[in-house]
What does this fold into?
Amino acid sequence: MDSAASNQGGSVEDASTPSRILVATAEVLARQGQTKLSLSEVATQAGVSRPTLYRWFASKEELLESFGRYERDLFVDGMTAATEGLRGSEKLDAALQFIVQYQKTYSGVRVIDIEPEAVLAQLPSVVPTMRARLQKLLSGPNAEVKAATAIRIAVSHYLVPSDDTEQLLAQLRHAVGLRQPTRLPPPIARRQRRFRGHGCPAPCRR
It folds into this structure.
């Protein structure tokens, strides 16, 4: 049966099915880690049958590979939404606030506690994506250094968690040379809430 067709039970598999499975993967990873990840648990969390999961992802390895790409896309798309319509320092500050909120609200934030070796192994592929995205918002000869410093600060807060969100934001602003906080206009705040409601925050979140 085609993945877009109705099955005998009347449910419909459509383009949203793989997305639901990937969102469910984040939730299950937060509880079990990668080594003990159960595809049956992922299917249950996503509200699909195990055969349906296998129609989209043939193995645990394929699911995890797709999930890695999914997380990176979430970060890029989320930052794009948070900075849409802004310019200059306002756009940069919106990006920094997005990074802070991403780390604070991401559903997979506890994976580092469950399986730190797996997270550490993924960071080398995650950090360049975050750094490159932030660097696009910076200018001047030190843009690359500023972006790298800010992302390293964000990663350090991820590895050694802090409950002081304002401190992380202040450190990120200092790293990129933003001296005064920028007040986000209401539309940007709404876009940030909309993204958080999508069920995610940073690539490779714990």
Remarks:
- The mean pLDDT is 81.
